[in-house]
Write a structure and sequence with these properties.
It is found in: Endoplasmic reticulum; Golgi apparatus, cis-Golgi network; Golgi apparatus membrane; Postsynaptic cell membrane. The protein has 214 residues and is α+β, with helices and mostly antiparallel strands. The chain is built from four helices and eleven strands.
Length: 214
């Protein structure tokens, strides 16, 4: 869940999903996976085995966390793994976690795309981008009259997202806007907002579409 203010700034973000298990294996030389650098991270470009998939990033080597394309002691990951003297080696692979800066950048980018979509639409008063669909997820967006955007990234099979977005708006109105300590357009830090949002997401996961009385 992402909440973006009318200026395009990310003011709230929540990841509500079952954590994907990382996969750690011990390899002998030569490595039977093809790795490459993508967005300053070392990822699997070819070869899949034992839960390791194309696109998974190298997260740790011999138990030490990897920082982008560098090992914990500052060595280049690809150079380290090309040296037979470093084997056997234990490598942990998994889905790349977005940093706070990357989340801010993505929110700002979508805000710009939303504005462009509204302007390019042949219909006067277009609501902008309401949904983007891929093979693995759907991005749903609901913009309020004041310009606040609520975005949900969900499984493409998940039903009832439109109702969920309006439920999130209701929670925002009740627990953020009515909070005397909350300033408009600023990051949302409210325990009741967090609690009720997580509850709404759990209901959506279990029940699918929201009923009239939810």
């Amino acid at each position: 869940v992402y909440v973006v203010n009318k200026a395009g700034g990310l003011i709230y973000q929540l990841e509500h999903c079952a954590p994907r298990a990382d996969t750690e294996k011990t390899f002998s030389f030569p490595l039977d996976l093809v790795l490459r650098v993508h967005d300053e991270r070392v990822v699997v470009a070819f070869g899949q085995r034992d839960g390791i998939r194309v696109g998974h990033a190298v997260l740790a080597i011999n138990g030490a966390e990897v920082n982008g394309r560098l090992t914990a002691d500052g060595k280049d990951v690809l150079e380290f793994l090309s040296n037979p003297a470093n084997y056997p080696v234990s490598i942990r692979f998994g889905r790349h976690r977005l940093s706070s800066n990357e989340k801010l950048m993505l929110a700002s980018m979508f805000h710009s795309l939303f504005a462009i979509g509204s302007q390019l639409s042949p219909e006067v008063g277009s609501s902008g981008i309401e949904m983007l669909e891929t093979d693995t997820f759907k991005l749903h967006c609901f913009q309020t009259l004041t310009g606040i955007k609520f975005m949900v990234l969900a499984d493409p099979r998940q039903a009832g997202i439109d109702a969920l977005l309006r439920k999130i708006y209701e929670i925002y109105s009740d627990y953020a806007l009515k909070n005397p300590f909350y300033s408009l357009e600023m990051p949302i830090r409210c325990e009741l907002f967090d609690q009720n949002l997580k509850l709404a997401l759990e209901v959506a996961e279990k029940a699918g579409p929201f009923g009239p009385g939810s």
